[in-house]
Design goal:
Layout: H1 4-48, E1 52-57, E2 61-65, E3 70-75, E4 82-83, E5 88-92, H2 95-123, H3 129-180, H4 186-230, H5 232-264, E6 267-269, E7 274-279, E8 286-287, E9 292-297, E10 303-309, E11 321-326, E12 329-341, E13 346-347, E14 361-368, E15 380-384
Antiparallel strand pairs: 1-10, 1-15, 2-9, 3-5, 3-8, 4-7, 5-6, 7-9, 10-14, 11-12, 11-15, 12-14, 13-14
Helix pairs in contact: 2-3, 2-5, 3-4, 3-5
């Protein structure tokens, strides 16, 4: 016969077991939900940091150089100065260009005197129909040469005015900055501005004159060629007679064109917005064409360069999604895409190698940087694939 105490304890145990089963049954959906959430978090963490590699923001660098040889007249920027696209950073000395123009114009004057002598020869009495035809041909040729000399003389004058205008523009830009900083009077600024505008208008008029003289030169050549087609028998003789003179004028035209090209490259301007990181040359120094004068770096990087280790190179393609984080800011990264990849493996820079002094190889991957990050060139980054 079972004692009352034993029966009571069995009932209590059964009751407790039943209550526990009821509680487990009620909390089972919550436990399943928590388990699923834990698995999802683990999978997300693994996806988020599947492969995380070090990267660096690409530096976009511009080297401002002259297109011609010359002496550096002035530098208009200093190191670490912010510049805008088109801002003047340096200028070359114009004295050599002025001397070249003076020499070319002197030679044109000599050729003009020869043309006057040719006119006297045309005025002489020449016997025979054949010689009369030759006189006509030489007259047309003289008109061509005269029109050519007038055109080149006007072109040289235009080049001189352009050089002077560049000097006034340099002075006006300096006065404008001083006026904005209230370091010079408004009268001085207005005086420089009016002088610059007046010369600019004169250059525009000179340009129109040069274009008109060039058109007249072309018309004179057309008339000469038409006359030559009529008198074919004298063309070879006439060409041989006038060839040296025409070549001499052509040489001066080439010299003046070279000066005009040099004028275009005399003022060196910033190719983009950025910061002046280096000033290589000094005022008064003779520089060669293509020699860097100023180095400018864009303030914000557009791409990042990351290196996938050679033992973990994936099938990454342009357009694949990645996540970029700044090392200086461990906050949540931003999504971006792969812009390009190197075809093969290369040596990873020492800065990005986990163990300094140990050679490492990887595949360079270029990632477009979100503009929201405003990352500076050279800044350390983390890229998650």
């Amino acid at each position: 016969m079972t004692s009352p105490d034993v029966s009571r304890s069995d009932r209590i145990r059964r009751l407790s077991r039943d209550r526990l089963k009821i509680r487990l049954r009620r909390s089972r959906p919550l436990l399943v939900w928590l388990l699923a959430l834990s698995v999802a978090l683990v999978l997300y963490a693994r996806r988020e940091g599947g492969i995380v590699v070090a990267g660096v923001a690409e530096e976009i660098r511009y080297e401002v150089a002259s297109t011609t040889d010359g002496r550096l007249d002035a530098l208009h920027v200093i190191r670490n100065q912010a510049v805008t696209r088109g801002q003047m950073v340096a200028s070359l000395d114009a004295e050599a260009l002025r001397l070249e123009l003076r020499e070319a114009r002197a030679e044109l004057s000599r050729l003009t005197a020869e043309l006057a002598s040719e006119t006297l020869l045309l005025a002489e009495d020449i016997e025979g129909r054949r010689l009369d035809r030759q006189v006509d041909l030489r007259r047309f040729a003289r008109d061509v040469e005269g029109a050519h000399v007038d055109y080149l003389d006007a072109l040289a004058g235009l080049a001189e005015d352009r050089i002077e205008l560049q000097g006034l523009e340099i002075e006006l830009e300096r006065t404008s900055r001083l006026h904005e900083s209230e370091l010079t009077s408004a009268d001085q600024y207005d005086e420089d501005r009016i002088a610059c505008e007046a010369l600019r208008a004169s250059v525009a008029e000179q340009t129109d004159l040069v274009e008109a003289l060039e058109l007249g030169y072309e018309h004179a050549r057309t008339r000469r060629d038409a006359q030559l087609s009529v008198y074919k028998e004298q063309s070879l003789e006439l060409s041989a007679l006038l060839e040296p003179h025409e070549y001499a004028i052509e040489v001066q035209g080439v010299r003046i064109e070279k000066v005009n090209l040099a004028i275009n490259g005399r003022l060196l301007r910033a190719p983009a917005d950025g910061i002046v990181t280096d000033v290589v040359a000094r005022a008064g120094e003779v520089i060669a064409a293509g020699q860097p004068v100023v180095t400018i770096v864009e303030p914000c990087a557009r791409k990042a360069i990351a290196y996938l280790p050679e033992d973990r190179v994936l099938d990454v393609q342009p357009g694949d999604e990645v996540r970029v984080r700044r090392v200086a800011d461990r906050g949540r990264g931003l999504r971006s895409t792969v812009a390009a990849l190197d075809a093969g493996l290369c040596s990873v820079p020492d800065r990005l190698v986990p163990s300094p002094g140990v050679a490492s190889w990887g595949r360079a991957v270029y990632v477009a940087l979100p503009s929201e990050l405003a990352i500076r060139p050279g800044e350390a980054l983390e890229v998650a694939f």
